[in-house]
Amino acid sequence: MNRRNRARFRTDLTALVTRLDLPDSPAKARLADLSAHGLSLILDRELPLGSHVKVEWRKAAFVGEAVYCRTYGKEFLIGLKIEDPVYAAIRNADAGH
Question: For a Cys-Cys bond, which of 17, 23, 69, 77 suits 29, CB 3.0-4.6 Å?
């Protein structure tokens, strides 16, 4: 049973992900899906649970905590809990164009 109470929207967007404790090691990732307070990334490396990361896409930026990390073929599917509403950050970034 799906415990989520918010809709998730599938995406295939390229983003830049930086662990806040390792700011000199950004990595490219794909955003797999978005919801109001979370997102899933596909990354070529594991991300320890509890890691805090910054995700940048276009002019939008999110800070979140890794709540799961699963193998996904030769990559990893990582779930992030985001404190600030994701949709608002995207809307604000698009308004800046």
Answer: 17
